Sequence to fold (474 residues):
Amino acid sequence: MADDRGPARTAEFMARLSEALGPKGVSTDPLEIAPHVQDWRGRWTGSTPVLVKPASTEEAAKAMTLCAEYGLAVTPQGGNSGMVNGSIPYGEVLISLKRMNRVREVDTLNDAMTLEAGVILTRAQEVAEENGRLFPLSLGAEGVATIGGLISTNAGGVAVLRYGMMRDLVLGIEAVLPDGRVWNGLRGLRKDNTGYDLKQLFIGAEGTLGLVTAATLKLFPKPAVKETAWVTLASPQNAVELLARAKAASGGAVTGFEIVSHFCMDLVLKHIPDVRDPAPSQAPWRVLIELSLPRPEGAHDMMEGLLADALEAGLIEDAAIAESEGQKAAMWKIRESIPIAERAHGKALKHDVSVPVSRVHEFIEQASAMVKSMNPGVDIIAFGHVGDGNIHYNLTPPPGVDADRFLEGEGLKLSAAVHDLIWRLNGSISAEHGIGKLKRDELATRKSAVEMEMMRAVKRALDPENRMNPGRVL
Ligand SMILES: Cc1cc2nc3c(=O)[nH]c(=O)nc-3n(C[C@H](O)[C@H](O)[C@H](O)COP(=O)(O)OP(=O)(O)OC[C@H]3O[C@@H](n4cnc5c(N)ncnc54)[C@H](O)[C@@H]3O)c2cc1C
Fold:
């Protein structure tokens, strides 16, 4: 434990913690702790002297006050599905918010719901559905990712194009500050111009400014109908042009526009059971398009018309429109299974990058030519949210090359080259997953000195002792 005042003081901390939170709130059981100190992909393993599991904001505040008193660093954790080595502790006290999973309020007239940080995303979607509304955030880890983690990473997912990232979906936040004070910012307001918008500081902060304990989230009308199609096409450029046409033809009703390379499709077919290619083809790219419309009348015709026009214009090679809810789910399953298929394939070098939508094809084409010229044996796993300019651009080690050696050796050069290209195209080296420990050093070399100093100033103001998730982001 990062307390240098001796074992007696550590024992005293543990005793006071157990007294404050009770037996359900504190664990030192190595078997219980083990899954919390390993990341989702099994790439990193950390350690913690104690797992703290508050069941309420009051308990979370007691734990944080004690950590402050004993000068202990804290790592917050939700579903531990983060991708950037930010959610596992390296000696810090680990605070898991998963027991804080109550629905505090649903206010349908205000189109808002207030949930505790440990509520899992699928549950949040269900609560909205039970109240005749939509909570639109949706991503591959939705069965494990929590509201607190989604806020802390400003998560994106597959509906950002229409509804925005988590930052756009949060109306208010409740947080426990590093010194244990509770800030109740749970305002369900859409207009509130009363100075700095403090909740935005906690969104995307990756646990470096405090513990998010609850949030008031926006709800939306449920679309009456969704039209989903799977198309095959020759190039990312065609995909970008198809997106522009789809937006115009549907009056802005495009809620999903996901690109999938031929290689990704093959990986899914190989590793994921019960998957069928909706439009088998040798074409190098596929796109999943989803339109969400307020009325069923004319919806199918709108999708058919859009695809017929695109076919005639030579933008697409073939298309399959889902004719049932089952077929829609099957198309989404392909897209959402890619990270799982990729994991089954083996370790890969990840790039979660974004560029302006108009430059997606430029990025994919230039990056692929560059990567292949640097190392022809590498396979490229490219997929993602074209509608938001966000591409997951991952590289597998060449056949026969040890994955760890690749990631720590040749992979570093490839990553630097991919990120240099991203920077030249005015993009971001982290579109969705955040910075964590993984990209911390690189962040400091990419952002301007002014921007880094503003971020450090915010951190110093809220966490002057640098005890909240130290070594992540900054
Ligand atoms: C298969 C798969 C698919 C994914 N797809 C997407 C995707 O499409 N889009 C996307 O954006 N992400 C995606 N992710 C990444 C991940 O799901 C998100 O980053 C998610 O927001 C993490 O939520 P979590 O509850 O698991 O948080 P964790 O992984 O537990 O934590 C993430 C970060 O937030 C901090 N944190 C967690 N809870 C709190 C809290 N209550 N208060 C303060 N800090 C906290 C942690 O310290 C850590 O820094 C995917 C992950 C997987 C495994």
